[in-house]
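We store chain and fold; thus.
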Amino acid sequence: MSTIPSMTESQFNALAKIIYDRAGIHFPETKKYIVESRLSHRLTELELQDFDQYIAFLTMGPYQSDEFQEMFNRITINETSFFRNEPQLGVFEKQILPELLEARSRTKRLRLWSAACSTGEEPFTLAIIVHRTLGVRLKDWSIEILGTDISERALNIANTGEYSSYAMRTTPELVKSRYFKEQNGIWSVDPEIRSMVNFELHNLKDRLAAKRHGTWDVIFCRNVMIYFDDEMKKRVVGMFGDQIASDGTLFIGHSENIRNVNDRFEPLSHVQGFCYRPIGAASSAAA
């Protein structure tokens, strides 16, 4: 019976630096046990003796890019579901979206970015909300919804549009019956909703890639900045500031705080909205 490799402090620091440099995710010393426990079996699979060999494989081997993806998938948890944090989504649907539709009534173009979207539940949720809000008017609008994530495995799931019952646990019954089809415990997104969303691999450290997509009316980035240190948070918030319309809205997770790293956005007063608008934007929403 083989012994599970253990991780030294210097090996952890080396791996933590690789993760931070490539993904911007900060693993403090207190999370060493998580990295060690989730990667030890990977060393056994690769028939490597210790973490020094793994670090070499990860940084110098011919499969280093693929292995980083594999490592990232193992050390992060893609915890999400449809209609997660419904009060916040209610603010989007009842307050922010109607304002934007009115403001874009001439161009009839609306652009939404779900950043760090994991397996796609969030952008599909946004598509459903837009679909039921516009109704028959949808055919007159150009709706662009982009879901991005750093994990290829997560995006592969998103692209299938098929989900387990666990992903549906926070979905209202009326939404299930209208926008999904269930077969053998697998829930498939309605083809019309599926066609409203595109997915793309994107690292939030890549400002240039974000710039290529132009300006967004709404940006959702929920429950990922909790993994960033202040420097990375400031970098990401700055990027969002560059890519959002002057009257656009940024939504963040309810447990996240950008107060100390933000000079681009001001909070809106919607209860449970956790949403921000570019500083200086003229809008009644902040009133």
Q: What stands out?
A: The chain has two domains: 9-75, 86-286.
